[in-house]
TrEMBL record:
This is OmpA family protein. Keywords: Coiled coil, Membrane, Signal. GO terms for cellular component: membrane. The keyword rRNA processing does not apply. Residues 142-272 form the OmpA-like domain. It comes from the Bacteria. Pfam families: OmpA. Gene3D superfamilies: OmpA-like domain (3.30.1330.60). Residues 16-117 form a coiled coil. Residues 1-20 form the signal peptide. The keyword Glycoprotein does not apply.
Length: 272
């Protein structure tokens, strides 16, 4: 009986020790698991922290990338605009230079034409100056050549006479010769009388007298010296002529050199 009881006690002690050992092992295992869990939680927290940092960095990088893209797009747009503006400015400069070259060409043409015109005028003036000599006054005014011949030389001392005196025909002959040597030139004969009284009913007034005197000079140039009448005009100015030289009346021969080609050239170039 004692043996059974002792065996039973031994079994109980053995079981108790085994249970105690098992419990100890379980507690150690639990402690290890707790430690692992704590380490895992710490690692998880660190990982989550790092994830948040990475997410913030990624968001910042994405914002910077978006900003860089917008800046790059703006720069490209500005570059394109600058290129377009530069091209337009370059085109405008080219057009301006071309326009200046064209204007320079036109001015050269006009300047050459003016030089040619002046040469023609001087040549005509020289020819008629030699023709009139000391018998009349000659000059250039308003682009035309004007010869002023005293009415006393042309029509004598009678201020109402409108027939050319023989003493004046030598002068008119030289003028006619100069005109025939320049067949393109046209002339206007301007009578300018200043008679004071008109008792003779054959003359109405100074206009009438001036016109007859001018026509008489034209007639002599045509009949005696074969100047084409189509080249000549006659007009009377009387004492009311705004450009009368003095109370000493005179007849004026206005010479118009042929400037048609010159003026056509000027008009053609001025159109542009």
């Amino acid at each position: 009986m004692k043996k059974i009881t002792l065996f039973t006690l031994m079994l109980l002690c053995t079981g108790f020790l085994a249970h105690a050992q098992k419990k100890k092992e379980l507690l150690e295992e639990i402690e290890q698991l707790r430690s692992k869990l704590q380490n895992t939680e710490t690692a998880l927290a660190e990982s989550q922290k790092n994830e948040k940092i990475s997410s913030a960095k990624l968001s910042s990088a994405e914002e910077q990338l978006t900003s860089l893209k917008e800046t790059n797009a703006s720069l490209l747009s500005n570059l394109n605009n600058f290129t377009e503006v530069s091209k337009k400015k370059s085109d405008n400069v080219s057009k301006t230079l071309e326009s200046l070259r064209e204007k320079e060409r036109q001015l050269k043409v006009i300047n050459d034409a003016l030089s040619s015109n002046d040469s023609i005028k001087l040549a005509v003036f020289s020819a008629f100056k030699n023709a009139v000599g000391a018998d009349a006054q000659i000059g250039i005014k308003g682009g035309v050549i004007m010869i002023n011949i005293s009415n006393t030389l042309l029509f004598g001392d009678n201020d109402k006479n409108y027939m050319v005196e023989d003493k004046a025909k030598g002068l008119l002959e030289r003028i006619g010769t100069a005109l025939n040597n320049s067949p393109d030139i046209k002339i206007t004969i301007e009578g300018n009388s200043n008679a004071l009284e008109f008792k003779d009913k054959s003359l109405l007034d100074n206009w009438d007298l001036s016109a007859r005197q001018a026509a008489s000079v034209v007639r002599v140039l045509e009949t005696d010296y074969k100047v084409d009448p189509k080249r000549m005009d006659a007009m009377g100015k009387s004492q009311y002529g705004s450009d009368a030289l003095s109370i000493e009346t005179s007849t004026r021969i206005v010479i118009h050199p042929k400037f048609d080609e010159f003026y056509s050239l000027i008009r053609e170039n001025m159109k542009n």
